[in-house]
Amino acid sequence: MEFSRCLCPAPLARLAALAALIIVVLTTGCASHRVSTVIPPPAPRPGQMTAAQVRLLLEDQLASWRGVPYRSGGLSREGVDCSGFVQLTFRDKFGITLPRTVEELAGVGIPMARGELASGDLVFFGGGSGKRNGHVGIVMDGEWFIHASSSRGVIRSNLGNPYWNSHFRQGRRVLPLSPPLAQAAAGPE
Q: What is the full DSSP assignment across 38-93?
């Protein structure tokens, strides 16, 4: 009976904790190889990105958002509009906060001629009701751009398509690509 009084709950808990600590020290100290956590490198800042990195980030964005329906004012996978898709893409993929509306976006960055467009550049198209900039997308690679289409949701389209070609209004560079990278991103003409 005297023995059972010595093993009260507090000493048992201390003994169990000490045993666990000894096991951890012995098993990690005797390991033949070091176990390390793989930490991915930080995402490159926009000024450090190559054209290939920009394209990959945009391809990833398209893959995860393709087919999400268009919804005016939307900012979720339940529905997104063109300026919302641009805003979310730049925030999530490039860490850049952009304005929310097409008209506000049309004043951001540096104006670019159609032949100088590169991956990551914004492209604007005339819209209904006489709007100069009624729609916006992001150049993905050469003539291809991604956007939230009012009829088909988030898709990839070609700037050479007669509709987009005739409605093109302007391009704007938001990502600071160096001139050689920008030319590589635009692809052959």
A: --PPPPPPGGG--HHHHHHHHHHHHHHHTTPPB-TT-EETTEE-HHHHHHHHHHHH
- Position 120 in a domain: yes
Q: Is residue 30 part of a domain?
A: no
Rounded CA-CA distance 46/93 in Å is 10
Contact 144, 187 (CB under 8 A): no
Q: What is the pLDDT along the chain (189 residues), one digit of tens a residue?
A: 444 455 555 555 565 555 555 554 444 443 333 333 444 444 555 556 888 899 999 999 999 999 999 999 999 999 999 999 999 999 999 999 999 999 999 999 999 999 999 999 999 999 766 667 899 999 998 899 999 999 999 999 999 999 999 999 999 999 986 454 444 444 544
Here the CATH number for the domain that contains residue 86 is: 3.90.1720.10
Active-site annotation holds for 33: no
For residue 113, which phi and psi values (nearest 5 degrees)?
-70, 155
Q: Is 147 a catalytic residue?
A: yes
Indicate which residue of 30, 33, 135, 167 is catalytic. 135
Q: Which domain range does residue 123 map to?
A: 46-186
**Catalytic member of 30, 33, 82, 167:** 82
Question: Does a structural domain hold residue 162?
Answer: yes
Q: Is 167 a catalytic residue?
A: no
Number of domains observed in the structure of the chain: 1
DSSP class of residue 173? Answer: E
